[in-house]
Amino acid sequence: MLKHLLRIFFTILFINANDTVIYPQMIIDNQQEISSMQIHNHQLFVSSIDGELKIYSLNTPSKVQKTITLPKYKDLFDNTLTPKIFNSDTNNLNQTLIIATNAHGSRSIFLSSGNKIEILLSDLSFAKALWINDTQAIIALLSNEILLFDIPLKKIIYQTQISQASFSDMLFDKDTKILYTTGESGIIYTINPFNGTILDKNTIHKDKVFQIALAKQTLLSAGQDRKVGIHSLQNKTSLTLPSDFLIYAVGIDSDGLYLAYMSDDLGSITLFSLKDKKIIAKLKGVKEVINTILFYQDFIIVSCDGKAIYYFNIKGVKQ
Predict the structure, then answer these.
(1) Which residue ranges in the chain fall short of pLDDT 50?
(2) How many domains are there within the chain?
(3) What SUPFAM superfamilies does the annotation carry (predicted)?
């Protein structure tokens, strides 16, 4: 359990003997400002603040395969507005959950299936939605409540308050069927997603955690306290990797061998070997605040609060 991680706690101190700098091999103009990105079945789902979810094939990354456009709405002053999309998640049936703003100054959850778009829930402060199977989704609110929603039944199974601190991020481990959430308090919660029971807590961070990432039983956390948390769920150990700047974004490769995190105010990304416990490269060329870091094969794919998608080729530095 995560609480045992606190019993074995280390801070990683390192000397960077490798001054390798990698610049983007490719930069794609998304034409709209990006709020987040997700990967599903070799496709890159790019959420924008302008009401469009663009789907790129990762085999031909410069080509948009499909665009899901949410309907515009009018505010109280009869102004026509485009909904801001915050994030999306897609299941094995190619149904996509989308969270976006609505006409009432709140947010809605849309379901895109084929050519059909419908609203599942509306007028709550929805923050993130994740499929836990092909018919049910866990939905987090900014107030740090989570709810389990059954899509075919259009029914909330349960709704529970996780913490009084505001919500930051959430992920679902498909292998163990466990949910992890975090927020402003810095606590990482381990949750049974089927009934909302809190199974464990991790308090390694002393301030807000912006993001979490997970692969092969290694959980990463990006902290306002200028630390990356590296939590081995299998060995019940916890490490911290210090940085000189607030860590807004973190990513891990699917094999759990490498992590990458935003490490300075210039948008630089540090690539770190979890096996060797050392920095192996710096990724440079991003100009804005990073919001997403994803690994895909030999690439690290990055987006920020701008219109560009950056592809960094790390094949030459993998060990």
Answers:
(1) 1-17
(2) 1
(3) WD40 repeat-like (SSF50978)
CATH code: domain of residue 263? 2.130.10.10
- pTM surpassing 0.90? yes
Separation of alpha carbons 218 and 226, rounded Å: 19
Q: Which residues neighbour 212 within 8 Å (Cβ) at sequence distance 6 or greater?
A: 169, 170, 171, 180, 182, 188, 219, 220, 221, 222, 250
Alpha helices (H) along the chain: none
Q: How high is the pLDDT of residue 11?
A: 36
At a CB cut-off of 8 Å and minimum separation 6, what does 76 contact?
Answer: none
In a domain, 318, yes or no: no
Query: What pLDDT is stored for residue 4 in this prediction?
Result: 33
Assess if residue 137 is contained within a domain.
Answer: yes
Task: Quote the pLDDT of residue 78.
Answer: 85
Burial 42-64 (b: 16+ CB within 10 A, else e): ebbbbbbbbbbbbbbebeebeeb
Q: Rg of the Cα trace of the chain?
A: 19
The strand pair at 21-22 and 278-283 is best described as: parallel
Q: Judge whether 69 lies within some domain.
A: yes
User: What is the per-residue pLDDT for 18?
Assistant: 53
Q: Which domain holds residue 97?
A: 4-313
The phi and psi torsions of 10 (rounded to 5 degrees) equal: -130, 155
| 115 C-beta neighbours (distance < 10 Å), count | 6
Domain-located, residue 319: no
Location of structure tokens 């992590």: 259
Contact, 311 vs 303, CB < 8 A?
Answer: no
Q: Are 133 and 103 in contact (CB under 8 A)?
A: no
List, for residues 87-101, the tens digit of each pLDDT value.
999 999 999 999 999
pLDDT (tens digit per residue) in 58-108:
998 889 999 999 999 988 788 899 999 999 999 999 999 999 999 888 999
